[in-house]
Amino acid sequence: MANAAISANSSEPSAPDGDRSVAKAPRDYRNIAPYFFIAPAVFVMLVGLVYPVFDSLYLSFFDWKIGEPFSKADNVGFTNYLRMFSDPDVWESIWVTFRFGFWTITLEMFLGVTLALMLEKPIRGASIFRTIFILPLMVSPVVVGLIWRYLFDARVGWINYYLGIWFGIEPQVWLGDAELAFFAIVFTDIWQWTPFIFIIVIAGLQALPSEVLEASRIDGANWWQQIFLVKLPMISSILVIALLMRLIDVFRALEVMYIMTGGGPGRATELLSLHIYNRAFDAQLLGYASAIAVLLIVIVTVLSAGILIIGNPMKDKSDV
Questions:
Q1: Cα–Cα distance between 237 and 319 in angstroms, integer?
Q2: DSSP class of residue 22?
Q3: 271 and 257 in contact (C-beta within 8 Å)?
Q4: At a CB cut-off of 8 Å and minimum separation 6, what does 69 contact?
Q5: How do the domains of the chain map onto residue ranges?
Q6: Eight-state DSSP code of residue 280
Q7: What is the pLDDT of residues 86-122, one digit of tens each?
Q8: Helices in 120-235 by DSSP H: which ranges?
Q9: What pTM value is reported for the model?
Q10: 244 with 308: CB under 8 angstroms?
C-alpha cells in the first residue's frame, strides 16, 4: 500500500524550474512600512531646513542686493567670509549672544527646575499655579515684545511707576541705557521661557518610578539627598535635552529683541540673529548676511555637539 502511494506521488508532474519562484512566500512589507509614515516629516525637513541651509551657503559667495536679479549678482568667492572675520560688529554680536545665553539659560534652568520640584507633589492649588506658570509660553513673541516694551517704558511704564511707589526709586530709562536694556531683554526671556523648562522637568519628575523613591526614603535619604542623588540624576537626560533646546532658541531669538530695543542702544542688545537680519534687510547685503548665518549654524552645531557628547543623554536608556 505504501509503495503504491509513493508511486502515485512520484507520477505527479513536477513544476517546471521557471515556475519555482511562484511558490515563494509573498514579500513582507511590514519592515519598510514605518519609513512611509516618516517620509512626509523627512520631506518637510528637507524643504524647510536642509534646502535653506545649502541655499544660504551658496548665496554667501555672492554680492546680491534686494531688488536686483540674482543673475546679475557678482560671485565674490570668500570675500564675504574674510569681511565677516574682520568685522568688529560681528564679534560684538557674538559676545552679546553668548552673554545673553549664559544668563538666560542658567537662570531659566535654575528657576524651571526649582518650580518643578516645588509643584511636583499634589498640593492644594498646584493646578492653578501650573496654569499661571505656563501662560507666558502661550503668548506670541511679538506680543511679548510689545508688552514688555510698554512695561519698561521710561515715561508710562508700570515698572517705573511701581518701583517709585514701593521703593522710592527714580524712573529709569530701561531701554535707553546699555546695561539696563540688556537686563530688560534677559528678564523678558526668562519670563517667557522658564515655563518651557518647568513643563519638561515636572513631566520627568512625575514619571519617576515610585519604587526607587520609596527605597531611597527607606535607606534614610532626606529631601535634599533625594533631589541631588536620586531625582536629578534620573532625569539628567531630560535636563540635557532641555538645555540643548534652549541653546538653539537663544541663537535664533529675534522678534522680542527687535521689537523691544531693535538691537540698541548702540549694539548692546544686538544678538547675532538680529545682526544678520539688519545686514540682510536694512543694509540689503544678502550675501554677507548669508555668510554670517553660516557662521551661526557652525557655532550652534559645535555647541550642540559638545553638549550631546558631554551630557550624552542616551548613555543610560533606563533614564526617564
A1: 7
A2: G
A3: yes
A4: none
A5: 63-311
A6: I
A7: 999 999 999 999 999 999 999 999 999 999 998 887 7
A8: 126-138, 141-151, 158-167, 178-206, 210-218, 223-226, 232-234
A9: 0.82
A10: yes
pLDDT tens figures, 130-158: 788 888 888 999 999 999 999 999 888 99
Report d(CA 161, CA 163) in Å as an integer: 6
Place of cell 545682526: 275
* Residue 231 near residue 205, CB atoms below 8 Å: yes
- How far apart (Å, rounded) are the C-alpha atoms in residues 111 and 117? 10
Cell of 129: 499655579
Which residue type is seen at 15? A
Provide the grid cell at 310: 558631554
Grid-cell match 492644594, residue found: 124
Q: Output DSSP code: residue 65.
A: -
- The one-letter amino acid at 16: P
Return d(Cα 188, Cα 264) in angstroms, integer: 16
Domain 63-311 has CATH 1.10.3720.10: yes
Q: What's the rounded Cα separation, in Å, for the pair 60 and 69?
A: 16
Nine cell digits for residue 70: 540674482
Alpha-carbon gap, residue 196 to 200, rounded angstroms: 6
